[in-house]
Amino acid sequence: MKILTSAFLLAIPLLVIPLLVMGQQTPGQQTTNEEQVRRVIAYAQAYREHVPSLECEETMLSQRVKDGKVKRQVKIKATLREVRDKSEPGGFRDDYTFKSGDSRPAKPDSRTPYFVYNVFANSLGIGDNPRPTCFDYRFATLDDGRTVQFNIDAKPGVRDPSCTKIPDDYHKMMLIDTASGAVRHIERRVSPEFADKNLEIPYVAIDYAPQRLGEETFWLPTRFEAIDLHQQGRMIATYSNCHRYTVVTKIVIP
User: Fold this and answer.
1) Is the pLDDT of residue 154 over 60?
2) Given this model, what pLDDT does residue 124 score?
3) In the predicted model, is pLDDT for residue 33 greater than 80?
4) Where are the domains of the chain?
5) Among 80, 117, 146, 150, which has the minimal tally of Cβ within 10 Å of its Cβ?
6) pLDDT of 108
7) Which residues on adjacent β-strands are paired with residue 141?
8) Residue 197 parent element (H or E)
9) Sign, CA torsion 168/170/176/182
10) Eight-state DSSP code of residue 10
11) Residue 140 phi/psi, 5° resolution?
12) What distance in Å separates the CA atoms of residue 189 and residue 171, rounded to the nearest whole number?
């Protein structure tokens, strides 16, 4: 099993913190890369104060892949609960109820070819402040300015102590809706060697879409793919029927 731990956030709520793209600004409105990065961070931090505990149906395809061919695969259906937990690095705790494997009832000792968890809770985030010493930040506009592509790349060979835990080949890409600041897609890549040493995933891709949770709308993951050919693994997960989850505590009076 592998854990996605390189980020901190679950999803981004629909709060209007728009990104300013170069083609939309007057000369007096030009923003620097750092200002743009701070907008993305501010949007992410606003999420932490709003997103509730939730429950979704998850369908997983777990595969063992060798030489480009699928050697074994298992289709799993489960209910995933994301419960707020301050003791967790991402602020949420995974709680799975496995329902079936290949259309048969799930067994407690069932094994899967490749399984990744903490994806939903740790899929999106870039830290609390810009780190220009460690990263190159680049923005590009797509779709006639309707989408911003945000690229984050580690600066190789940097000797600054604050950058020592960042792999030289770290890369993250986000597609962000310009008007709202909502993240629609994310990809993250590190080397297989770094991933093995840190219980990480070499390649991750996640799609997001707006979903109603009670009276609010949040951009939540709808599809996730993890690829680790070094460990001969691939996992694809889709999420549906997400809704608020409330923990009920019952007190028994003797």
Assistant:
1) yes
2) 56
3) no
4) 2-130+189-244
5) 146
6) 75
7) 148
8) helix 192-197
9) negative
10) S
11) -140, 145
12) 5
